[in-house]
Amino acid sequence: MKLNRRISLEACWLCAVIVASCAPAVLPRNFARSPNDPLPRRQSTPEVYSDANVTFGTVALPDGTLLRTIRTVPRGLSAGKLAGIFIVGWLSCDSMESPSDSDGFAALIRRLAQNSGTVTFRVDKPGVGDSQGNCGTTDFETELAGYKAAFRLFSRDPNVDSKKLFIVGLSNGGGIAPLVAQDIPLRGIVSISGWGVTWYEHMLENERTRLSLSHASPGEISDAMRKFSVFYDEYLNQEKTPGDVLRAHPSFRQIWHDEESGQYGRPAKFYQDLQRLNLGEAWSRLDAPVLVIHGSFDWVMSRRDALAITDAVNAKNPGAAIFHEVPTSHDLRHYDDMDSSFKRKPANFEEAVAVLAISFVHEQSAGPDLLP
After folding, report:
1. 112, 172, 242, 258: least surrounded by Cβ within 10 Å?
2. 14-19+40-197+279-366 homologous superfamily
């Protein structure tokens, strides 16, 4: 299968349009709720665009829990079909609604909605935004079920060309993106700040990087990593809670920096679900081109995390995945060094990320039919 692999920075007009969209403007209310929407709105600041309309809907988990969906469509489109971008979000319990450029991920979502000329679609996980449920107790299998249900709904959108379905995955979403589509053919995936190794490998590398950037001594790092290797094995592979591990190994309390019931605001089972995934297999089975974007100053997901995706895709279809590095942090802010990224110094969104992602979608949409 020959894939259209050329990625180029599109004509200067695209750069200019994207940069111009950074400035906030006073815009009319161009968002709407679906008729009989059962979910009350909690977001007080509307998400508005000059060239796109926003519609809020719902999708249900198998147990009936209702999740909020956010759909954008270019303004003025009443009929016809466009390419569609399904956006899979991050690990944290933050809403996918993006009324402003609050961080780099939100800025990218807004550029995709405003400038890509596609239908975009998002879903909030349980307990986030308007969605029912409790994010803090939701495991990954349940969250994934929500993504799958929303993607099925998105794939039947009357304004979306079913042969031009794309996924843009951000952070954790950049790793688990191929699991979302199931058997529905994709035109391409853009993985941004993603991961393709086991969660155990990822966390060990992340802990070492964090300690190094925190200026721990080499001896302190080695001592901590010996403990972390046991800690994460028992936590992730043996499926104990962090508290269980700490009670069995009291000396590990000096290295643990989170809750006893979970990590980063999610329950232990969430990460145990991630550890059971075989992302190498998932990416290897993909029959679609992939653009992998990694920030050179991303200390959360490493270069190795991102290259694992590229390598897995290309193992089956050589040249189907390309790797692009940009001078950003994990959340796509422009930096010139890792220390500034780690300290989260004020920085702006790196517009090149939006240019690359939109160019990929346009070029793959305009190329020959790559799908069976």
Report:
1. 258
2. Alpha/Beta hydrolase fold, catalytic domain (3.40.50.1820)
